[in-house]
Write a structure and sequence with these properties.
The complex is a heterotrimer of chains A (543), B (311) and C (298). Chain A has 543 residues and is an alpha+beta fold. In chain A, the strands form seven sheets. In chain A, strands 3, 10, 11, 12, 13, 14, 15, 16, 17, 20 and 23 form an eleven-stranded mixed β-sheet that branches. In chain A, strands 6-7-9-8 form a four-stranded antiparallel β-sheet, with helices on one face. Chain A is globular and about 70 Å long. Chain B starts with a helix and ends with a helix. With 298 residues, chain C is mainly alpha-helical. Chain C is 72% helix and 3% strand. Chain C has helices at 20-30, 32-54, 57-61, 88-124, 126-141, 144-155, 159-186, 189-196, 201-238, 249-256, 265-292, and strands spanning 2-6, 14-18. In chain C, helix 4 (88-124) runs antiparallel to helix 5 (126-141), helix 5 (126-141) packs across helix 7 (159-186) and helix 9 (201-238) packs antiparallel against helix 11 (265-292). The chains are: A alpha+beta (543), B mainly alpha (311), C mainly alpha (298). The interface between A and B is large, with 54 and 54 residues.
Chain lengths: 543, 311, 298
């Protein structure tokens, strides 16, 4: 009798385990498609001869992509996917010279003060085989200008209309002469050419069709996104090498670093500063370190009851010890700055900054602003990167001048939409302060225009989360955008930086140190210190 | 017997209805203006209102709830407000991962704890017993996410033997399973021991020994079978705790299961995902509880008789 | 009640009876583990009270000192410093306050709610019993972390909401125990006679029934405090418990995770604090269970 019971127990346990493993097995593609680095390698042929490369390039990314709809979002993490699948008219280099070359366009010129004429290269095809023509270019820019179709309108501000001259020639008609405007056509995402045919065919995800060297394969939510080489890529000389490129989402810093050390991944994006030594000592791993262009700052919402007061903002600026924040977030390896313009852009002025760390002055300014007794306010921060650490240091520093800060941490995409609105829809609270970042290595206007301009409720910077509506800022920005000569460009930019320094819509902490770790045999990676890397020609060489 | 099962299923329904009502109402009250979240801040008031009507948000909350439950019966849990993905599909793609983790953990726990419990019971009051029970006590007192961190520290960071996270092959389930399973193991070991001690005191065991039955036969043939019921109870109770434990283990190890998924969606304030996820969890737990009760009946004909009689 | 012989100078032996409380204490004293647990728990309460007075919260506990960040254990900072230079030992000692107040508060609240609901359910039976039991079934069906997460996301993360969220689990436990005891005793004769002489229901419950449920409830209290401490630290670890910069043990572990490879001590010491506290409570709880009803003793 007892023996039966025991046998039954074992039988049941066995059945249950088998059932579980069967269930797990047919549970989904997740187990089979998670890419550990494949040992298989093969020869890939490029025009220059065969290259021995690993089949898959696995990149450990610090966050998950949020969307592949390139007309409606521009987070960096999504942008690096677009660089694989789509292309722009011009190509912006990573060497700091700003000298652009043709990518889809074989030439461009100013035919008059406000018209830019581009000529497409021959034989360009999309991944579905259809040819790219001037119509696709016009369609792309028409969509970008249409707020119902795209949220990236600010990327094409200044564009009046696009005219198709012939199959391969397009004219961009601007409202004014804007010397920096050609850079717009090198932009990801607001400059990638989409397929008119795909969008008009009623396809569910037309943004997956691009002309680039890779094609989207799959996106397993929470795990990875994979792209396969486009073997029908039109530019045979510049085809991709790796057969597959996978971005694995590994938000846990230590997991990503350990995976790099164990060569489970080939590239480790953004290793945390305190792990750099471990990576340098790991076998077969190369670590790169540069000063980057990506700034992190404490932003004020000028709609907030407290921070509509300029003197109060200046007071807070004097209470922030940037060196401490740099030390806490980046072990001191970031580059502290005071001016609001991104480091690495032309006219960046290191000498600007009249509100440096001075607690006495901060308290005086508090008094002048009428808040001698302090107050309580909220600070919104995204729970990613080093932002929570920065928030906790800000909280401690502001306590010294009597400001009690409540930190509200939310997931990155949620955080962005909260600070965009300026109101937290789930509690109804107005955002007082927030921590955010801005990276720009191409155009001045992508800083001045996107962050600080507000000419009307329909026409304002896409990242003007401060809700700054200042006429002088708008007019200086416009002067820079439409400047006819270099001297005006320089002097107005310096003037604007000085004015912003008085206005203090934000307190910039520093730019993050640029670190990346990768397999020592990695080749073909085209890196930008701001993080907008181009992996389309990267591969890990074998033997 | 079938009648009993049906009756239990019917009893599950009010529980699930109440749970889902509470969650649905709670989440929807806090999600803010959904239409605005979807359409963005450039949308006009007409566009917003049209969206609200499209999503059924203009109706009273009870009506919305009924519509939601009606769709649930067809497997449609709605779509994410944030990226439009289908809730049920997302749940389905991750649920097997949690199941895998849960079963591996319970397997691991049972393999360690039941023999340990038997051994310590048979060697009661010796140093082996004390050591075993003290170890079990430590196991129960440790927060499992801390255990996970320590395991990563030892086996991944210092020794480099096992991966520190993600789901990538057979080695990646070991540490998460131990994290979830060790606490369970401690509980089960304690229960096994006390259950065996109970049984071993019985007269029929004394008789068997007096008759000259070898010790191992005494344990496995006579004692263990009867001791199984409380052990199964313990294992069954732990199953309900697994989901709790798995949220933490999944977070520490970046394991792509539903615990972490629900939790991530709460930080993203993705209401349909959270509502759908938790309701599915509640349904799953009720089914699990029912299965555990049926396992009792399997083992103990007396209980089976009770169930059959109850009808 | 036990009988013990007491020697008097007369030749007659007089038996002095001990109350249940004293008898339990006598048995408990014999259990070394339980005594260790009790001493540790008392020490913890002492540390909590002492820390509140001794430490300056702003300076010692949340005051940042960036130049001293990430230092390992040393003479100056016995358990090292964290990523913004705060002394870990001080934070652990002060952090005991959160674990104790939240868990004792949640269990206490759960006790009151659970006992009331359980007595009503057990005593009246029928529809009310069914309703209350369905609700507890529901709360069992959703894992208690999820329940806590929902409550916290509805009402925001603060010590108070955490307490309410955690008391749910305790309440369901107490409700079940009380109901079971009440149902067992309900049929007894002395209850019937109390009822028949017109004693109001609530008086019957309090005077006659509850004292008999006392043993399982007392044991459950100590064990639940332990479980609740772990739950509270789990929620803080996930980021929805006590908000920053409070030195709650779970939150400290969450912060330390990023520095696990270079400053492992940040992930070890707060966890040890949690483990030893819960261990002490488990030892005490086990000892109480054995002491209250020696027939159950192994």
């Amino acid at each position: 009798m007892r023996r039966k019971g025991l046998r039954r127990a074992i039988a049941l346990l066995a059945t249950v385990t088998t059932a579980a493993s069967l269930l797990a097995g047919c549970g989904g593609s997740s187990s089979s498609s998670t890419a550990a680095s494949t040992a298989a390698s093969g020869a890939s042929s490029t025009a220059g001869g065969t290259v021995n490369a690993k089949d898959t390039l696995v990149i450990g990314s610090q966050s998950e992509i949020s969307s592949l709809d390139l007309l409606n979002n521009d987070d960096q993490i999504n942008n690096i996917c677009f660089k694989l699948t789509h292309e722009t008219l011009l190509h912006f280099p990573n060497d700091g010279t700003g000298k652009m070359t043709g990518e889809l366009a074989k030439s461009y010129e100013w035919t008059d003060d406000t018209t830019l004429r581009y000529v497409l290269k021959d034989g360009i095809t999309f991944s579905d085989g259809s040819p790219m023509t001037a119509d696709d270019v016009k369609y792309t820019y028409d969509c970008l200008m249409d707020p119902n179709k795209s949220s990236l309108g600010s990327y094409v501000s200044g564009l009046k209309s696009v005219e198709v001259i012939d199959d391969k020639t397009i004219d961009f008609h601007l409202t004014e002469h804007m010397a920096e405007w050609p850079i717009n056509t090198a932009n990801y995402p607001g400059g990638v050419i989409i397929s008119k045919k795909a969008y008009e065919s009623g396809e569910k995800e037309p943004y997956l069709i691009g002309s680039g060297p890779y094609v989207f394969k799959e996106w397993v939510s929470g795990d990875h996104v994979t792209f396969v080489r486009n073997d029908n890529y039109w530019d045979k000389e510049n085809a991709g090498v790796a057969k597959e490129i996978t971005f694995r989402f590994m938000s846990e810093d230590s997991t990503r670093v350990i995976a790099m050390e164990n060569h489970e991944i080939d590239v480790c994006i953004k290793p945390p500063t305190n792990e750099i030594d471990n990576l340098k000592n790991a076998q077969g791993v190369t670590v790169e370190n540069k000063v980057s262009t990506r700034k992190h700052y404490l932003g004020f919402n000028l709609n907030s009851d407290f921070f509509k007061n300029q003197t109060l903002r200046q007071a807070v600026a004097c209470a922030i010890n940037r060196d401490d924040i740099n030390a806490a977030a980046y072990d001191g390896n970031g580059a502290v700055q005071y001016t609001d313009l991104n480091r690495g852009l032309p006219t960046f002025d290191e000498s600007i900054g009249s509100y440096k760390y001075d607690l006495t002055r901060a308290k005086e300014l508090m008094k002048e602003a009428g808040y001698e007794n302090g107050f309580t306010c909220n600070l919104y921060v995204a729970s990613d990167e080093q932002w929570p650490t920065m928030a906790s240091v800000v909280q401690a520093q502001l306590k010294e001048i009597g400001i009690t800060v409540n930190i509200v941490e939310t997931e990155t995409a949620t955080h962005k939409s909260i600070i965009k609105e300026g109101v937290d829809s789930s509690t109804g609270n107005t955002v007082d302060m927030f921590i955010w970042r801005w990276n720009e290595d191409m155009k001045l206007d992508y800083v001045y225009g996107d962050l600080y301009s507000w000419t009307s409720d329909d026409d304002h910077g896409s990242a003007n989360f401060y809700h700054l509506k200042d006429d002088k800022v708008n007019s200086l920005r416009w002067d820079i955008l439409t400047s006819e000569d270099d001297a005006t460009y320089q002097s107005k930019s310096v003037e604007l930086q000085k004015y912003l320094d008085e206005l203090q819509p934000e307190v910039v902490f520093c730019t993050e140190p640029f670190y990346i770790a990768y397999d020592s045999n990695l080749k073909g990676a085209y890196l930008f210190t701001g993080g907008n890397h181009d992996w389309s020609h990267a591969y890990v060489a074998t033997s | 017997m079938i009648k009993y099962i049906l009756k239990r299923i019917l009893q599950m329904i009010p529980a699930i209805l109440i749970t889902s009502l509470l969650i649905f109402v709670g989440m929807n009250l806090t999600s803010g203006d959904v239409a605005r979240t979807i359409l963005g801040d450039r949308a006009s008031e007409e566009q917003l209102q049209a969206k609200r009507v499209e999503l059924g948000l203009d109706k009273p909350i009870i009506v919305q709830y009924f519509n939601y439950m009606a769709k649930l019966c067809t497997g449609d849990l709605g779509k994410s407000y944030i990226n439009g993905k289908d809730v049920f599909t997302e749940f389905q793609s991750r649920f097997p991962n949690t199941l895998e983790l849960a079963f591996t953990a319970i397997l691991f726990a049972s393999i360690i704890s039941i023999p340990l419990g038997i051994y310590t019971a048979m060697h009661q009051n010796t140093w082996q017993d004390t050591t075993g029970m003290v170890a079990a006590l430590f196991g129960v007192s440790m927060p499992n996410f801390w255990l996970g961190l320590l395991l990563i520290l030892l086996f991944s960071v210092k020794l480099g033997w096992l991966p520190s996270g993600g789901k990538s092959g057979i080695t990646s389930i070991i540490l998460p399973a131990i994290t979830v399973g060790l606490g369970q193991a401690a509980m089960i070991a304690r229960t096994t021991r006390s259950s065996m001690l109970d049984v071993v005191r019985q007269d029929y065991i004394r008789t068997a020994r007096a008759k000259g039955c070898p010790e191992h036969k005494v344990i496995y043939k006579h004692a263990l079978g009867n001791a199984m019921i409380p052990i199964i109870t313990a294992v069954g109770l732990q199953l309900s705790n697994i989901l709790t434990g798995s949220v933490l283990a999944e977070t520490v190890f970046s394991w792509p299961g539903i615990g972490r998924w629900i939790f991530d969606n709460i930080s993203k304030r993705d209401t349909p995902m959270v509502t759908g996820g938790i309701i599915m969890c509640a349904i799953v737990m009720c089914i699990v509880n029912l299965l555990v009760d049926l396992v009792y009946a399997f083992f103990d004909p007396r209980i089976k008789a009770q169930y059959v009689k109850k009808g | 009640m036990a009988m013990v012989a007491v020697k008097k100078d007369t030749s007659e032996k007089v038996y002095k009876s001990r109350s249940m409380g004293a008898e339990t204490w006598r048995r408990l004293k014999k259990n070394k583990g339980a005594i260790i647990g009790l001493i540790f728990f008392i020490l913890l309460i002492a540390v909590t009270i002492f820390s509140s007075f001794y430490f300056n919260y702003d300076k010692d506990i949340i005051g940042q000192n960036i130049s001293q960040r990430l230092q390992g254990p040393s003479a100056q900072h016995l358990l090292g410093t964290d990523q913004v230079g705060r002394d870990i030992l001080y934070r652990i000692l002060y952090g005991a306050k959160y674990s104790l107040t939240i868990s004792c508060g949640a269990v206490g609240l759960g006790l009151i709610i659970g006992v009331i609901l359980g007595s009503i359910a057990g005593f009246h039976g029928g529809f009310i019993d069914d309703l209350i039991m369905r609700i507890t079934d529901v709360l069992y069906a959703v894992p208690n972390i999820m329940v806590a997460v929902i409550i916290v996301s509805l009402f925001g993360a603060s010590t108070l909401t955490l307490l309410i969220a955690l008391c749910v689990y305790a309440a369901t436990n107490f409700a079940r125990i009380t109901r079971a005891s009440v149902m067992t005793i309900r049929g007894e004769e002395y209850v019937e006679s109390a009822y028949s002489i017109g004693l109001p229901t609530w008086k019957i419950i309090i005077k006659h029934i509850l004292p008999n449920c006392l043993s399982p409830i007392i044991v459950q209290i100590t064990l639940l405090i332990g479980t609740t401490i772990i739950s509270a630290s789990s929620l803080s670890f996930l980021g929805i418990g006590v908000p920053a910069p409070a030195p709650e043990w779970g939150a400290m572990l969450s912060e330390g995770r990023e520095y696990m490879r270079t400053n492992a001590y940040m992930c070890v010491f707060p966890g040890l604090a949690i483990m030893f506290t819960v261990l002490a409570l488990n030892l005490l709880g086990d000892g109480l269970r054995d002491a209250i009803d020696p027939k159950l003793k192994r």
